[in-house]
Specification:
Order of helices and strands of chain B: HHHHHHHHHH
Number of helices of chain B: 10
Helix content of chain B: over 70%
Order of helices and strands of chain A: HEEHHHH
Strand order of the largest sheet of chain A: 1-2
Number of strands of chain A: 2
Strand content of chain B: under 5%
Radius of gyration of chain A: 21 Å
Number of helices of chain A: 5
Oligomer: heterodimer
Helix content of chain A: 55-70%
Distance between the termini of chain B: 69 Å
Shape of chain B: globular
């Protein structure tokens, strides 16, 4: 039989899992948004539009649904730009959530993502046409809230693992199985 | 006139008591095509697990996220092979997922070596020959290349899922190169294996909806299509008479 002692609190501590996945998400979003901006700037400066081609794997990049910068159209649409920016913003501002053990509930996440789904799907079905501002707003909210839900979830998993590890260590030291 | 209820005739039960219930149908040895597409939604936490899966797929843009996903799918394959009712694993042991995924991906990369060799030895020299004026020789060499690459691609499409399944279930990347075992697995379960490939093709086609709808949705639909595919191949293993 294992002896369960009080496990030291891990509040205020960001676990390795929390750090790793937050950093990875921030890096991925930064790479996407950063290269999209870089390519737009390069095209505005006279580079070939072929540079937009790799982004077709991520997004349709329709000109009428994308932002323009310096006279050049961005290679990803306004919605994608906003979602990726939201993910970047969310992963950079999630630290207080992780430290204090806050997390938004799954139903709240669904509520915050639903404007994006309604906006995107009503447009996909041809019922209405959205605007870039609406795409950007709903996308940014969805991206940020996804990061604020997922990263604390990863942190929770990390805390659980840490507690299990400590429990196992305590059990071993006490001569348990 | 006789009232309706009185008109109904009831027959006494046969001698020896009540009628025994019919025997349960024998378990099917064919994978359930419909269950492959619905099993994951029966998990009580399917939504959070798939949202998390999509997020890790998204991290696959920087390659590293793919290792977590492959490790997760390996655990899913083991759960299905063990006959668990809700086989979708939790995203709990990220370190284990990463290490196992890394091993399986590296093993799968070895499978790609023949392609790389074919491109280096045949396709690139063929293109160079065509550019230097030796068009007949270059064209001939390119045809040879196609004759080699197409069968190799077909062979890989057939062999790699079995190799992944066996490697994941036996928790060993070395099993992915036990070709005798792999071919025996395919041969013994030929019918289910073809069905599993069909499940993969359908799931993969459906996953393209993600990009049509909301671009970034492709990461989630692709993850779900992977879950469905892994279920089909692991179920083939579960039903296999030879393990």
């Amino acid at each position: 039989m294992g002896i369960r002692r009080d496990v030291p609190a891990v509040a205020g501590q960001v676990t390795a899992e929390g750090w790793l996945v937050s950093a990875l998400l921030a890096a991925t979003a930064a790479v996407v948004v950063g290269t999209a901006l870089l390519v737009t700037a390069a095209i505005a400066a006279g580079a070939s539009e072929w540079w937009q081609l790799p982004f077709r794997l991520l997004c349709h990049g329709l000109a009428e649904r994308s932002f323009e910068l310096g006279g050049a159209v961005m290679p990803i649409c306004a919605r994608c730009t906003a979602i990726w920016s939201g993910l970047l913003f969310g992963s950079l501002t999630v630290l207080p959530f992780l430290r204090r053990g806050w997390r938004i509930r799954l139903d709240i996440l669904l509520l915050l993502v639903s404007p994006l789904l309604i906006d995107g799907l009503t447009q996909a079905f041809g019922w209405r046409e959205s605007t870039n501002m609406l795409r950007a707003l709903t996308g940014f909210v969805a991206g940020s809230s996804l990061a604020w839900w997922a990263l604390p979830e990863v942190q929770r998993i990390g805390v659980e693992n840490l507690k299990r590890l400590k429990f196992e260590t305590v059990t071993r030291e006490a001569g348990g199985p | 006139l006789v009232p309706q209820e009185n008109a109904m005739t009831t027959y006494p039960p046969p001698a020896g008591g009540s009628i025994p219930p019919p025997p349960p149908p024998p378990p099917s040895n064919t994978i359930d095509f419909a269950k492959a597409f619905t099993f994951w939604m029966k998990d009580p936490d399917w939504l959070s697990k798939t949202i998390m899966g999509g997020l890790f797929s998204l991290l696959g843009l920087l390659i590293i996220g793919n290792f977590f996903v492959v490790g997760y799918l390996a655990r899913l394959a083991r759960n299905v092979a063990a006959g668990m009712e809700n086989p979708l694993p939790a995203w709990d042991t990220l370190g284990e997922y990463f290490v196992e995924g890394l091993k399986l991906v590296l093993a799968a990369l070895v499978y790609i070596i023949p392609f790389i060799l074919a491109v280096l030895v045949i396709v690139i020299p063929a293109a160079m020959l065509e550019n230097t004026g030796a068009e007949d020789l270059g064209g001939g060499l390119a045809s040879c290349g196609i004759c080699l690459i197409v069968p190799l691609a077909l062979l890989m499409t057939i062999v790699l899922p079995a190799a992944y399944t066996l490697g994941a279930i036996h928790r060993s990347a070395a099993v992915m190169f036990d070709f005798k075992r792999i071919f025996q697995f395919i041969k013994v379960n030929a019918m289910n294996y073809v069905l599993a490939i069909l499940v993969y093709l359908v799931a993969n086609s459906l996953s393209q909806v993600g990009v049509v709808a909301l671009c970034i949705g492709i990461f989630w639909t692709a993850f779900i299509s992977l879950i469905i595919t892994v279920w089909a191949f692991a179920e083939t293993y579960r039903l296999s008479p030879v393990k």
